[in-house]
Amino acid sequence: MLSTDTTPRGLVSSPAPGLPTHYAGAVTSKTSYSSQEPNPRVDTEVGPLRTVLLHRPGNELKRLTPRNNDQLLFDSIPWVDRAQEEHDAFAEVLGSRGVEVLLLSDVLRGALDDPRAHAAGVHAAVDSKRLGTDLADSLRSHLSGVDSTTLAEVLMSGATFEELPAAETPSLVRKMHHPHDFAVAPLPNLLFTRDSSVWIGDRVAISSLAMPARERETALLDLIYAYHPRFQGSGRAYGAHSAPIEGGDVLLLAPGVLAVGVGERTSAAGAESLARSVFADDIAHTVLVVPIAQSRATMHLDTVCTMVDKDAVVMYPLARESLVAYTLRPDEHIGKESVRVDGPAPFLTAAAEAMGIDRLRVIDTGLDPVTAEREQWDDGNNTLALAPGVVVGYERNVETNARLIDAGIEVLPIAGSELGSGRGGPRCMSCPVSRDSMAGLS
Ligand SMILES: NC(=O)NCCC[C@H](N)C(=O)O
């Protein structure tokens, strides 16, 4: 039976629950910002992290069932309360190291306070191909009248047909759908803020996400960066509706030097077009395009390799010898719009050359193949650097973490038994917005 409720069930129509007090100090939910805050700018993977965008998992995770988890890109059904506790602890570690944590739900609500963003949000929520004209019109008109908090919740958690406002004459589409089908699809992968946008220098690239379950994230990030006061005036790199690129495939190896993985998510066309964009904007001079296996275990470059120091990476042992890179640079003779392609060459050699260093150190995890495969799957190579030589990693990757520590890297361990069910680690769950330059750091 169809619900007669006008407020979608399970959706928040009053202010969102308060932040847990134990890390509220580290997390901002402000709507106005002062000039004290660092300007958005990220030139490297390991420069001291000042500001990061995270998403505290919310009601969207409660939409996952054994029938839809594969399609929604989760490997199992997370225990949501525990996932939130684990995420709070992650945010707390960052806060304890002086990192300002912005929460995606806060900045989304803040952006939606602007009427233009609100209209864009309604547009992003309503898919008339899915709903048909009548239902799409009535949902659009309903959402146009809700406050920013309710609209943000619908955008993140979606809505089932039974949660839609009652209609005088139910449409065919509504009659023919099961009440629990999604009228607005939920976005459980918002958790992985790394993938949906990436700062390159002082510009932000909004990703064009490859998997249908994540496509709508683009629209949310687009309106956050366009309308939230914190980001007013920020320049854009790349185009949100171009060929697929995802932030998990983009590593800022050194100022002006990017590595871009091409595999399950980022296409060769996406990498080429990102390169053109960053060359034209003068925010990079070299892009290394790195083919990676098209499989779930290696869905992004950052599942096999992340930087842990200014000249060091942690890398899945099997990738060490096999990764290669095509080197893209602007063609000086023809102009910045043209791209010269060299290679392929071994990735580590091409990277060191582009970075202007003798060699890119690989922290030798020295693992046996079975442990290496297990810990790669559990995001052992997916660390988030807070500064050169200081990283956050999942505690469960005992062997990888031990090797990092032996190599002089400080590892801040976090629990991830539930967070990991979406197949992403600390780097995947974080989008750095501001990092200090490494000039002057020894
Ligand atoms: N950079 C990353 O590797 N992100 C992890 C994304 C996991 C998410 N469930 C996905 O399949 O897109």
TrEMBL record:
Catalysis: reaction(s): L-arginine + H2O = L-citrulline + NH4(+)
What is the gene called? Answer: arcA
Q: Positions of the region Disordered?
A: 1-44
- Give the pathway: Amino-acid degradation; L-arginine degradation via ADI pathway; carbamoyl phosphate from L-arginine: step 1/2
Record's family? Belongs to the arginine deiminase family.
Show the InterPro entries listed in the entry.
Arg_deiminase
Source organism: Amycolatopsis marina
Q: Where is the composition biased (Polar residues)?
A: 28-38
Q: Which GO terms describe its biological process?
A: L-arginine deiminase pathway
Location(s) in or outside the cell: Cytoplasm
Catalytic site positions: 428 (amidino-cysteine intermediate)
Q: What high-level taxonomic lineage is stated for the organism?
A: Bacteria, Bacillati, Actinomycetota, Actinomycetes, Pseudonocardiales
Which protein is depicted?
Answer: Arginine deiminase
**Kind of enzyme, top EC level?**
hydrolase
